[in-house]
Amino acid sequence: MSQHTTAAADQADLQRLIEFARQRIVIAFYQSPTVETLQALAILATERIAQGRPLRGWSLIGSLSRTSVQCGLNEERFEAGLLFKKAENVSLRVAINMLPPPSTSIEAETQRRVFWVGSKRFLCHAATTSSAGC
To answer: What is the count of structural domains for the chain?
Structure first.
């Protein structure tokens, strides 16, 4: 077997592994959304848009945006070391997969950033119907 054939086989194996990892990210996101799976989905969506596959990327951004709201990332639940417990009867929204409130300011900031990454990209796309300038 020549070096070229071996390199091509290695490249094909690498591409299969990358595609498998992409599929696992999406499956993990839909099975049990966490801040980590939301972050991974944001990276995957951005990568797909950058590679010229905008329809796949924008559908993932839409899912990210909606799920981050469903998980409560759009709500401020941490301030100056105090956790705010939201009264269950205050919200009409049913949070099926509500994430636990952040326990540190770093977790709170991570949740804010994940929410805004998805929301900004989604809103930018909706406003311009292209990825230009966003």
So the answer is: 1
